[in-house]
Design brief:
The complex is a heterodimer of chains A (142) and B (86).
Chain A lengths: L7 E2 L14 E5 L4 H15 E3 L2 E2 L1 E8 L8 H7 L5 E3 L3 H6 L3 E3 L6 E6 L5 H8 L2 E3 L11
Parallel strand pairs in A: 1-3
Antiparallel strand pairs in A: 2-5, 2-6, 3-4, 5-8, 6-9, 7-8
Chain B lengths: L5 E2 L11 E4 L14 E6 L2 E13 L2 E8 L4 H12 L3
Parallel strand pairs in B: 1-3
Antiparallel strand pairs in B: 2-5, 3-4, 4-5
Classes of the chains: A alpha+beta (142), B mainly beta (86).
Amino acid sequence: MAGDTEYQELRPSLRNEAAPDDGIVVVRGGPSSIEKLLTHARRTHDAFVLDGNPLWGISVFCALDDIGPASLDPLLRRFASYRVVHLPYMGQLRDAGFDLLPTFKRPHFTVRLQSPDDVLPLLTALGNAEPNPYYGRRPGRR
Amino acid sequence: VVTVDITCDLMDEDESGYVWTFLREARDPTLIEPGAIVVAGDEDAPAVAEVVEIVEKPAGPVVHLRVLPGVIEDYQALVRRAITPA
C-alpha cells in the first residue's frame, strides 16, 4: 500500500463510462517515446494512487464520438504540438493486457501499467506512429 | 532549440480540466505564477500555455496550465509581425 498522506486517491475521479473497443486512442509518438512515456508514468505514480495502491499510468485521449470535441479530428488539432501520434484502437490495448481507466473529464483516460517495465510492451501495443495532419498546419502563419 | 519553462505531459489533465505538472518541474520556479505565459511540454513538443494557478497537492505544489492553441511557431510569427518596423 502507498502512504496515505503523500498521494491523491484517483478513485473519486473515475467516470462511469466504458471504453469502447472501437474507440481510437490518441497517444503522442516520436523517437524518444520510451523515455517520454516512462517520465509520464512516473509523474502519475508520484501524484496518484488507486484504492490506496501505487499507480503507474499514461494519460491519453480517446475519440469516443463521431463529431464534437471528443472526436478524432479535434483531438488531433488540440495536440498539434505532436509531430507524430499513435492511433491504436482501445480494443488493441485491452488485448495486450492494458486497462483503460476513464479518469477526470471526458474523453481523458489513463492507460494503467503494472510497473514501469510495462512501457516497452505498451509501446509495442501502440503500433506504428503516423504524422499528425495538424502539426504545423495553421492559418495565418507567414 | 526551444527552452521549455516547465516540463509536462500535454495530455496530463486532472479534475480541474487543465494540464497539470509539479512546480518542481519548472526550469525557474520564479517564472511560474498565475497569469504568466510560458513554454510547457518538452523540447520535442513544446506548447505555449498560461499558468492558471498553483495548488497544494499531497505530493507537492502542482501547476495548472491552460494550453493555448497552435504550435510555438505560430506565436513566433505573431511576435515577428508585431514588432517588425513598417
